[in-house]
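explain this:
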Amino acid sequence: MQLFSTYESTIFLEMAISTLEKKGINKENIFAIPLDNRSENRKIFDNIHRSDGTSLIDIGMALATAFSVVGASIGFKLKWGPIYWGLISAFIGFLLGFLISLFIELVVKKRRRRLKGKHSEIILIIECEESQAELIENILWSHFALGVAKIKTR
């Protein structure tokens, strides 16, 4: 049987490996693989093949609606009339909302993403007998594994 677990690169991984060795698992049956985490920045603008589920135009549309209503009502007193001023103020509201959304994505959420989140950095693979699987799984969880999976081999 094989057990797979993911860890951050911390002292808990070393403690888990030493505990497994104390419980009788040979060094040849423990295999640790470092992962290469994503180093490139996430893309802000979506395309037809990839979307992250965030929208940059939702605040812009709401502000365009609000600004156009206000601009059209003020436009009755101005020279160009309510239609032109409604369109001008809708464009200004959309642009303002788009810039607000862009600022939130680029600055606020980037900072929050950097502070938040645990990243898997190492995969630990343990080859063992089926009778030892429960004990090993408990050891891995008690040493703060991010995830554990069991696979039965022949």
In short: Residues 58-115 form one domain. The mean pLDDT is 85. DSSP finds four helices and four strands in the chain. The longest helix spans residues 82-115.
